[in-house]
Amino acid sequence: MKSAQAKVYDALVVGSGASGGWIAKELTEKGMEVLMLEAGPPRVPARDFTEHIWPYQLRYRGFGNQKKLLQDQPLQRLCYACDDYSRQFFVNDAEHPYTFPADKPFMWIRGRQIGGKTFCWARVSYRYSDFEFKAASHDGYGQDWPFSYEDLEPYYDKVESYIGVSGSYEGLPQLPDSKFLPPMRLSCGELVAKEIVEKKFGW
Ligand SMILES: Cc1cc2nc3c(=O)[nH]c(=O)nc-3n(C[C@H](O)[C@H](O)[C@H](O)COP(=O)(O)OP(=O)(O)OC[C@H]3O[C@@H](n4cnc5c(N)ncnc54)[C@H](O)[C@@H]3O)c2cc1C
User: Fold this and answer.
1) Would the CB of 79 count as within 6 Å of ligand 1?
2) Of 173, 123, 183, 174, which is closest to residue 191 (Cα–Cα)?
3) In the chain, where are the structural domains located?
4) Cα(174)–Cα(162) distance, rounded to whole angstroms?
5) Is this prediction's pTM over 0.85?
6) Cβ 118 under 6 angstroms from ligand 1
7) Which residues lie closer than 8 Å to 58 by C-beta, 6 or more apart?
């Protein structure tokens, strides 16, 4: 495109996962024109969503073609969710090589599609606490994050109020309470387990 015709955007967002998606939402709501670049294709529910297929409908009965997994996704397959039902949401390792020091192996789990790893996300929406952000001060390993839970708290509030997170207020320092929708009810088995844990351990 000639430069005279080129459209100028206010912001460029690279990647359409949860992070890029949220940033694009915030910027466009403020009136900015945003260009989003995404390296992967869109996913088509009728074709790509195969989590609910019965094992007997799959050639390897849900265990997957292990030879092909080892060949194409030797690293991704180490993630529990990269299986016969969901491997399409993970990259082909041969096509996305990376390196790491031999003594510091790093398992880089990646998705390449519009929506990124929201396709793998298991729907647990916990908050981190200063046990994570200030972990180095607790155990001496690595570095503290440059912000604290208190700094992040209003942003947690904002995102949770938008997406809707169900849960119960427990007041635990290691797992700060979210802005909750009403909690889902416990199953009979969970209720029994809760009673026993409360009685035996006082938790
Ligand atoms: C199996 C599994 C279960 C999980 N369950 C949970 C859970 O229950 N709770 C929780 O909080 N978290 C969970 N997570 C983690 C969570 O899903 C991720 O942290 C989150 O989705 C990451 O979002 P992101 O936008 O930062 O990155 P991604 O979702 O990885 O998005 C990055 C995007 O950028 C694109 N991209 C990369 N490079 C380029 C480029 N050069 N140009 C253009 N586009 C590019 C990619 O294609 C991708 O779409 C889970 C992760 C996995 C794998």
Assistant:
1) yes
2) 183
3) 49-107, 123-203
4) 23
5) yes
6) yes
7) 84, 85
